[in-house]
Design brief:
homodimer; about 150 residues; mainly alpha; three-stranded antiparallel β-sheet; 6 helices; 3 strands; elongated; DNA-binding
DNA sequence: TTATTTATTAAAGTTAACTTTAAGTCAAGG
DNA sequence: CCTTGACTTAAAGTTAACTTTAATAAATAA
C-alpha cells in the first residue's frame, strides 16, 4: 500500500512539515518519489513509528540519524545498533524510575491540598499526619517554616 | 541556615545561571538580599526542589510561575493550586504509561538484535518467534518487507 | 480546459529554556 | 590597602526541533 504525505501524516500523527523535516534530516532514507512527489510505503510508516518511539523517549535527532544510517549499512553494524537500543532501553527505565519518584512528591502535594481544603487553611496542616495516614514519608515541603 | 548562590547551586544541582534565570522569571519569590547579594534559606532550597519536580515532569516555566504566584496569595487560591497539582500528577501517570509502552517496543528491538547477532544476520530472524519465546506480541518492525 | 487542492523547495521565523558575555560591585585574605 | 574571587545585572547568544512563508509544480475535480 502506498500513501501521500498527508495520508502518512494522518497515519503517523506527525504533521507533513515534520515528515519533510525528518526526511531532510536523513531520518527517512529511501523514500520513493513519483514526479518529485514522495510516495510512502508501509515500511516507511513503520520506520516513522520507531522514530517516534526514539524521539519521544528523548533521543536527539542526530543520534536517531546515526542509528538509521547504521541500519542501512546492513549486518556489519548489528552490534553498534544493538548498543544504541540497549542504552535507550536503559534510559527509558531510568526515566520511569525518576517519574515514579516525582509522582511521590505530587502524591504528597495532593494529600496536602486535600487536607488544606478540608480545613480551609494551609496553616492547619500537621506534616506528621502524612506518614501516619499513608505510611509514606513526607517529602520536604516548600511551605514549611523552619 | 543561609546559603550563597553557589552553595544553593551545589545543594540543588542547578547552575547559578539557572537559579538567577528562575529568579528573574518569578519562580523564586522573596529571596532575601544582603547588600544586593542573594541569601538563600532552607525554605528556598525546598521550593527549588518542587520547581525541579514540576519542571522535570514537563510543566512549562510560565505555568510554574502561575503556581508560585498563587501560593503567595494564600488560602484563597488553595482550590486553584490543587487543580494544577492534580493535573500534573495525572500528566505524570500518563507519561509513565507511555514510557512503558515505548519500553515494549525497545524490548522487542533488544530481542531482535540478540537474535540477529546470534545468527550473524538480520535476515535469519523469524518475527513469529518473538511471541513464541516471550508471550508478548511483536510490535511492527520497520525492517519487515511486505 | 480550468480551477482548486495538494505537493515541492529553500530559507526564514519561532519557542523554550537556558548560557554566555561584559561591565561592574562586594567580601575576604595577606 | 590591594588583590582575588564570588557576586550582580542587562543583553545578547545558543540549541533543538520544529513551523511558516513564498514561490512554484503536479494532481484532481468540475
Amino acid at each position: 500500500m502506498s500513501y501521500t504525505i498527508s495520508e502518512a501524516a494522518q497515519k503517523t500523527g506527525l504533521p507533513p512539515s515534520t515528515i519533510r523535516f525528518y526526511d531532510k534530516e536523513g531520518l527517512l532514507p529511501n523514500i520513493k518519489r513519483k514526479n518529485g512527489i514522495r510516495v510512502f510505503e508501509d515500511m516507511d510508516l513503520r520506520l516513522m513509528g520507531l522514530l517516534t518511539c526514539l524521539k519521544n523517549t528523548g533521543m536527539p535527532i542526530k543520534r536517531i540519524r546515526d542509528y538509521v544510517e547504521l541500519t542501512s549499512k546492513g549486518d556489519d553494524t548489528l552490534q553498534e545498533r544493538y548498543e544504541i537500543i540497549k542504552a535507550q532501553r536503559q534510559f527509558v527505565l531510568d526515566q520511569i524510575e525518576q517519574l515514579q519518584y516525582y509522582l511521590e512528591e505530587l502524591d504528597f502535594k495532593d494529600w496536602y491540598y486535600n487536607k488544606a481544603l478540608a480545613a480551609g487553611s494551609e496553616s492547619a496542616i500537621n506534616l506528621d499526619d502524612y506518614e501516619k495516614e499513608t505510611g509514606k514519608k513526607a517529602p520536604d515541603d516548600p511551605n514549611r517554616r523552619d
